[in-house]
Design a protein that fits this description.
Helix content is 84%, strand content 0%. The protein has 431 residues and is mostly helical. It has a single domain, classed as MFS general substrate transporter like domains (Growth Hormone, Chain: A), CATH 1.20.1250.20. The longest helix is centred in the last third of the chain and has 56 residues. It starts with 7 loop residues before the first helix and ends with a helix.
């Protein structure tokens, strides 16, 4: 126990966000880590999203299908690297690789004669990055903090992603009139580089500040071992991990509904108006996320438990979808998008990441990316084609599909309760 005198700042952080003094450095370093990741991504994201409204539902579904198979391949390569290389080299290399890839897009697209091809390639690659970079981050967090700390700290750390979600879009908004998209890609690439020394710093804090100097810490310098298919085989053998996968699939189902409906509803607007609406949605999502995650998520999880935390947003979405089914409009769909995304970033995702503190390190680093990327993109493929079939095939409108969304949200909430109970049961067993 550290008996040194606490600073006023340490007392303030403990009072507001339940961060203990010895956890401050690691928490804020983790906050900075995810802030840099999401600032970079949110520079790249507006470039990607501006392209989607020019394509049909079927074209977007095709791109999601390609992205799914690419995600499978990348997960296999990543798992193979974890099997043969040291963990402390693999994790930083992921971010270095993505930084180089966006530099390649910035300087190499002139070699392609068809701009549509490079735009679709960019759309697919940024969509892969959108999930993979944050999945690896949360794997690292689940390895850095223990179960009790995760419940208190993950909400606050997740706020860094939302701050990045606010700062990131501002850069292209301000600079787009003066610089090209290529320059923005270079800026995004450079923001990924400070992440590499931050990883080394956090590994050191795990021993010196967090005092998690067990056999897992020693193993940081070793390979995880296993085989490249372990991420998939461990998933299929574990009912708990399958449950997490199903929980995530239901989230992608509701996300697909709001994504496609917004895309279609915005198609009648000009490009500048689309950008304004999308920017407003992003601002609302991240502002709500910051307030909720910084001051509420840790308290909700600690007071009401993981079951209630996982089920909260699904229950809100169930009511929202019923409302959209009765009173279909653009602004109700915008509201759904804000609630779904802000609720996921601030509440649902931090709670879901707590679940991975229960699994071993191989599952944490190999199976978690499979769930976060392959299952997520697989859900996108299924839901994307399903939405295209309902709208383009059967001609259904927003209202009927919204009632289906309400049913999905109800099942999503039930899965959250089941997973939360499993988490609480394991926690009681370990006490």
């Amino acid at each position: 126990m550290n008996n040194t005198k606490r600073s006023p700042f340490a007392n303030l952080m403990q009072a507001l966000s339940k961060i203990e003094p010895h956890e401050i450095k690691a928490t804020f370093a983790s906050f900075t880590f995810v802030f840099l990741l999401m600032t970079s991504y949110n520079i790249l994201k507006p470039i990607r999203d501006s392209m989607a409204s020019d394509w049909s539902d079927s074209e977007v579904a095709q791109l999601w299908t390609i992205n799914f198979f690419l995600t499978l391949a990348v997960n296999f390569i990543y798992s193979a690297a974890l099997s043969i290389a040291r963990l402390k080299a693999v994790v930083p290399s992921v971010y270095g690789f993505f930084a180089l890839s966006f530099l390649a897009f910035a300087f190499g697209h002139q070699a392609f004669s068809d701009p549509v091809v490079i735009k679709k390639a960019y759309y697919i690659w940024v969509s892969l990055f959108a999930l993979f970079h944050i999945s690896v981050f949360w794997s690292f967090m689940a390895d850095l903090f223990n179960k009790e700390q995760a419940k208190r700290l993950f909400g606050f750390i997740a706020t860094g992603a939302s701050v990045g979600g606010l700062i990131g879009p501002l850069l292209p908004t301000v600079l787009a009139a003066f610089v090209s998209n290529d320059v923005l890609m270079v800026i995004a690439s450079l923001l990924l580089l400070p992440v590499i020394p931050l990883i080394t710093y956090l590994e050191r804090l795990k021993i010196t500040e967090l005092h998690h100097s067990d056999e897992n810490t020693i193993a940081q310098s070793l390979t995880i071992g296993g085989n490249p298919f372990a991420g998939f085989t461990l998933l299929l053998k574990s009912p708990f991990l399958i449950g997490i996968s199903i929980f995530l699939f239901f989230y992608t189902s509701l996300g697909s509904f709001t994504y496609f409906e917004l895309k279609n509803l915005l198609a009648s607007y000009d490009g500048e108006t689309r950008t304004q609406i999308q920017a407003g949605i992003t601002l609302a999502i991240n502002a709500l996320t910051i307030i909720t995650a910084m001051f509420a998520t840790g308290r909700i999880a600690s007071r009401y438990g993981v079951s209630a935390t996982l089920a909260l947003v699904p229950i809100l979405m169930m009511g929202g979808f019923v409302t959209v089914g009765i009173l279909a409009s653009l602004w109700l769909v915008v509201g759904l998008q804000v609630i779904l995304k802000a609720g996921n970033y601030a509440i649902t995702r931090p709670a879901r990441e707590m679940l991975f503190t229960l699994v071993n390190r191989e599952a944490r680093y190999k199976t978690k990316p499979v769930i976060d990327t392959v299952i997520y993109r697989g859900g996108d493929v299924i839901n994307g084609w399903s939405f295209a079939a309902l709208t383009e095939g059967l001609g259904l409108g927003m209202g009927p599909v919204a009632f289906v969304g309400a049913v999905v949200a109800a099942v999503w909430a039930l899965m959250g309760v089941i997973l939360g109970r499993a988490y609480q049961k394991d926690q009681r067993a370990s006490e």
